[in-house]
Amino acid sequence: MPHVTTAIAAKKKILLVDDEAAIVHSLRYNLEKNGYAVATAGDGRTAVTLAQTEHPDLVVLDIMLPLLDGIEACKEIRRSSTVPIIMLTAKDQEFDKVLALELGADDYVTKPFSLGEIMARIKARLRRVEVDAEERDESITAGDITIDPSRQRLVVRGREVSLAPKEFRLLNVLMENRGRIVTRQMLLEKVWGYDFEGEHQTISVHIRWLREKIEVDPNNPRHIITIRSRGYMFRE
Q1: Which CDD domains did the record assign (predicted)?
Q2: Which of 21, 57, 135, 219 is deepest in the core (most CB within 10 A)?
Q3: pLDDT band for position 16 (50/70/90)?
């Protein structure tokens, strides 16, 4: 009898990082019940190691962790991976929320949270990754800048420039709409996600970082222009 191989889609793997055993147990149970594979860590240092060795599809990362806090762990993970990261924060950690998002987190959920909310956030974030992968990306050249989304590559005046994931996505959206005003709300939706309730200050910080990397004179930008009270425009 011939051997028949049936293709089975691999389970999405979630790295769950929290030092509260009750949260880990509850989330792990519900994630596995919904068909996800789950790896867990109780401290930031272990989380960084597992992110590098387990190659998860998404990380749920608490801010308050022993050995290495969640913000530092997020920074470490972002140095080598673009994996989606959802931060878990307490209600009084507003500063940490903003800082975490600026350092590369994709979303945050405030404790205490409902299982329905965090499961929906995880599903939406994984779906966004799938949609982005399905989109046909083509390189865009504007003046002396070329961006190639499919290869995550940016060349500025003949020199390859490295960008953080959010910076790359932000520049890509601006260049896709070059010559047109892109509102801050549109940038929040396209770069940070439709369900991100972030401050516009987050965009301003990333715009400043982008200008420092692509402009000849960041204080007098030629490409990324601020349109007062409306948003930004990429100009060739």
Answers
A1: trans_reg_C
A2: 57
A3: very high
pLDDT score for 132: 65
Domain of 179, in residue numbers: 140-234
Helix (H) or strand (E) holding 23: helix 21-33
Q: Report the b/e string of 183-219 with b at 16+ CB within 10 A.
A: ebeebbebbbbeeeebeeebbeebbebbbeebbeeee
Query: Quick check: 203 and 188 in contact, CB under 8 A?
Result: yes
CA distances from 3 to 6, 9, 10 (A): 10, 19, 20
Note the pTM of the prediction, 2 decimals.
0.58
Residue 5: inside a domain: no
Q: Which helix (H) or strand (E) holds 32?
A: helix 21-33
136 conformational bin, left if phi > 0, alpha if psi -120 to 50, beta if neither: beta
Domain-embedded: residue 83: yes
How far, CA to CA in Å, does 196 sit from each of 86, 106, 183, 186? 11, 8, 15, 12
Bridge partners (DSSP) listed for residue 231: 183, 227
Q: First and final CA of the chain: distance in angstroms?
A: 64
Instruction: Compute the distance between CA of residue 207 and CA of residue 94 in angstroms, rounded to an integer.
Output: 21
How far apart are the C-alpha atoms of 37 and 54, rounded to whole Å?
11
CA distances from 63 to 132, 149, 183, 220 (A): 27, 30, 30, 37
> What is the rounded CA–CA span in Å between residue 130 and residue 29?
24
User: Do 104 and 32 belong to one domain?
Assistant: yes
